[in-house]
Automatic annotation (TrEMBL):
Protein name: Iron complex transport system permease protein
Xref: InterPro entries: ABC_BtuC-like, ABC_transptr_permease_BtuC
CDD domains cross-referenced by the UniProt entry: TM_ABC_iron-siderophores_like (cd06550)
Organism: Saccharothrix ecbatanensis
PANTHER family xref list: FE(3+) DICITRATE TRANSPORT SYSTEM PERMEASE PROTEIN FECC-RELATED, FERRIC ENTEROBACTIN TRANSPORT SYSTEM PERMEASE PROTEIN
Length: 329
């Protein structure tokens, strides 16, 4: 336990350093002294505006979304007992995408503020549908949840493709949201979904003990006094709030929810009471690092963090799988 605590504190310290780097480094080079004055004694000059109105909100958003996707991915892998599960497997991502395209197609919504609530509503509806389809007469199981999620995701993907092919405006607006990124998002967007993310984290913490029991099998969990159906309901609600909120704000960001739980598990072992906080901190670190990399590799332009995660996440995950035997969940 002492070793885990030490490692978690070291990761928190690393997150602070990465967050400071996220504020200091960008496509526009700004001396560290100017960054410091922008934070402590702003004068309204261009550098101050860049730091205070662009980089600080972007960093806060990156931390929140990284935590949400990291914990959401760990919960997803635990409840489906699938080491390859990611936040899209329960239909959350495609449900959010369908709602965004539908809002553009039918209502002409074009602002991020409008997307947020439609995306969140789409994620919630898709999760409820997946849970109901996966429950059946005997209640939800990892297999039925995964199958129902795959079916709903495929259906949503088909509907999204049909709508964007029918309407060019929907396609143009949707393709920027679909890339996934935290650049240019106002911090007000974060405040809109922050209560849902915090509630999702609380439910995830409550769900940790039940997940440890479910990892032994449903029958063993019941013999230990766990209410399996209730544990799954709490888990699915937590996943929906965390992933739905993150996707609503930033669009789908791939690989984060898939890779982070494996990296966390390598440091903590399978105990979800530790795995979830480790996944939260590592998720925030990975997302901020990917965002900073995206700012500097394509100067004077930038690469969206969703693109960087796809380019870096895939080989990293392959290397992780080849180096370590995937844990059986």
């Amino acid at each position: 336990m002492a070793l885990r605590t030490t490692r978690l504190l070291l990761l928190v310290g690393l997150l602070v350093l990465v967050a400071l780097a996220s504020v200091a480094i960008g496509a526009k080079p700004i001396p560290l002294g100017d960054v410091w004055y922008a934070l402590t004694a702003p004068t309204g000059l261009e550098n101050d505006i860049v730091v205070r109105e662009l980089r600080v909100p972007r960093t806060l958003l990156g931390v929140a979304v990284g935590i949400a996707l990291g914990v959401g991915g760990a919960l997803m892998q635990g409840h489906t007992r699938n080491p390859l599960a990611d936040p899209g497997i329960l239909g959350v991502t495609q449900g959010a995408a369908f709602a965004v395209v539908l809002s553009i197609f039918t209502l002409g919504v074009t602002s991020l503020y409008g997307y947020v609530w439609f995306a969140f509503a789409g994620a919630l509806v898709a999760s409820v549908v997946v849970f109901l389809l996966g429950s059946g007469r005997s209640g939800p199981t990892p297999v039925t949840l995964a199958l129902a999620g795959a079916a709903v995701s495929a259906l949503m993907h088909g509907l999204v493709s049909a709508l964007v092919l029918l309407d060019r405006q929907s396609l143009d607006a949707f393709r920027f949201w679909q890339v996934g990124g935290i650049a240019g998002r106002d911090v007000a967007v974060l405040w809109q979904v922050l209560p849902f993310l915090l509630l999702g984290l609380v439910l995830a913490a409550v769900n940790a003990v039940g997940l440890n029991a479910l990892a032994l099998g449903d029958d063993v969990a019941r013999s230990l006094g766990q209410r399996v159906a209730l544990t799954r309901v709490v888990g699915v609600v937590a996943i929906t709030l965390l992933v739905g909120g993150a996707v609503a704000v930033c669009g789908p960001i791939g690989f984060l929810g898939l890779v982070v739980p494996h990296a966390a598990r390598a440091l903590t072992g399978p105990d979800y009471r530790w795995l979830l906080p480790f996944s939260a901190v590592i998720g925030a670190i990975v997302l901020l690092v990917a965002d900073v990399v995206g700012r500097v590799v394509a100067r004077p332009g930038e690469l969206e963090v969703g693109v960087v995660m796809a380019l870096v996440g895939a080989p990293f995950f392959v290397a992780l799988v080849r180096r370590r035997k995937l844990v059986k969940l």
